[in-house]
Amino acid sequence: MALYTPKYSRTKPAGRGIAGVVRRLLSSLRKFRLSTRIGKRSRAFPPPGKQGRGNLSRVHVLLLVIPLLIFVCGWFVYGRLASSDIFRLTELSVSGNHKVSRQQLIEKSGLRQGMNLLGFDVRAAEARLHQFAWVRDAHVRIVWPSRVEIMVRERHPLALVCMAGKKQGNLFYLDQNGYVFAPVLPGQDVDFPTLTGKLAALGLEKKQVRPDTPVAGALTFLRLAARGNAILPAQAISELHVDADQGLIVYLVDRPFPIYMGREKIRTRYYRLVKILERLYRKKKIGEIKEIQMNYMENRALVATVGPVR
Predict the structure, then answer these.
(1) Is pLDDT above 90 for 60?
(2) Ranges for all domains in the chain classified under CATH 3.40.50.11690
(3) CB-facing half-sphere around the CA of 200: CA atoms within 13 A
(4) What is the CATH number assigned to the segment(s) 157-305?
(5) Which end of the chain has fewer CB atoms within 10 angstroms, the N or the C?
(6) Residue ranges matching CATH 3.10.20.310 in the chain
(7) Is the peptide bond before 145 cis (omega within 30 degrees of 0)?
(8) Residues 65-124: pLDDT tens digits?
(9) What is the pTM of this model?
(10) Pairwise CA distance, residues 188 & 172, whole Å
(11) What is the CATH number of domain 91-154?
């Protein structure tokens, strides 16, 4: 008897592409479930041959195909969004800048009008903005889908620092935190007290004032004066000289006499000096002063006059 050969098969071709992969994946799952049900009904273990290896290989295939399928779909969706106009930059705002211009901040951040924001690195942009000497803090925020906000906080000078030996000049700006951050360029504001002396040997290391040093005492004095005391504001101070032996010596703008503050108890001596100056101004005796020694004794100050005391 001749063998019967069917002319067609009921099995449809798997197809190609993602649809084909999904169809083959579903077919493998059906076969795996069917073989599991048959094994449970017969209560017979599969022989240690092809059956066990086949089931194991199907599991391995599933573990490889599913993540690959997720990755392909994710990459396809990302590509479609990256090429669309939904996330293109259309609005940009800059706030908090005074010394650094808006255009400088935008160029440094790497933002361009019309660019797609999906691939924009916010952390890298903030790091680039911190390269400006006047920028203390910088934050870049994306307001989806198409707006970016740049917010900066600039440094405020507290005093000028005379640093000899610098190629760019010898005057630099010092901020409230005791950090020397930028050179003084021609045309910039120089109406600040000037800090002088051998600062590198007395507490100024790598552009930062070290605590518990003579320079740190001068910084404390400057912070107190910056609060806007009516008798002794920062605008009334001409120079703060730091000496290795005598400590801090202060000179006023309108008076040439020195004020010896010493090395310790700068805060207490500042407020005591304010009371002394207030009394001298009120009695109109400030023009007779030769020097003031705030470190004369433990709780006493010495006010030396040019002529005899009246």
Answers:
(1) no
(2) 157-305
(3) 6
(4) 3.40.50.11690
(5) N
(6) 91-154
(7) yes
(8) 677 767 666 665 555 555 667 889 999 999 999 999 999 999 999 999 989 998 899 999
(9) 0.71
(10) 11
(11) 3.10.20.310
Q: What is the DSSP string of the chain?
A: -PPP--S--SPPP--SHHHHHHHHHHHHHHHHHHHHHHHHHHT-PPPTTHHHHHHHHHHHHHHHHHHHHHHHHHHHHHHHHHTSSTTB--EEEEES-SSS-HHHHHHHHT--TT-BSTT--HHHHHHHHTTSTTEEEEEEEEETTTEEEEEEEE--EEEEEE-TT-TT-SEEEEETTSBEEEEPPTTS---S-EEEE-GGGTTEETTEEPSSSHHHHHHHHHHHHTT--SSS-GGGEEEEEEETTTEEEEEESS---EEEEESS-HHHHHHHHHHHHHHHHHTT-GGGEEEEETTSSSS--EEEESS---
What residue type is assigned to position 203 of the chain? Answer: G
Percent pLDDT > 90 in the chain is: 62
Question: Beta partners for 258?
Answer: 251
Number of C-alpha atoms within 13 angstroms, CB side, residue 142? 19
| Backbone φ, ψ for residue 283 (5° rounding) | -90, 0
Q: Where does the pLDDT of residue 151 fall: very low under 50, low under 70, confident under 90, or very high at 90 and above?
A: very high
- What are 306's two structure tokens? 């040019």
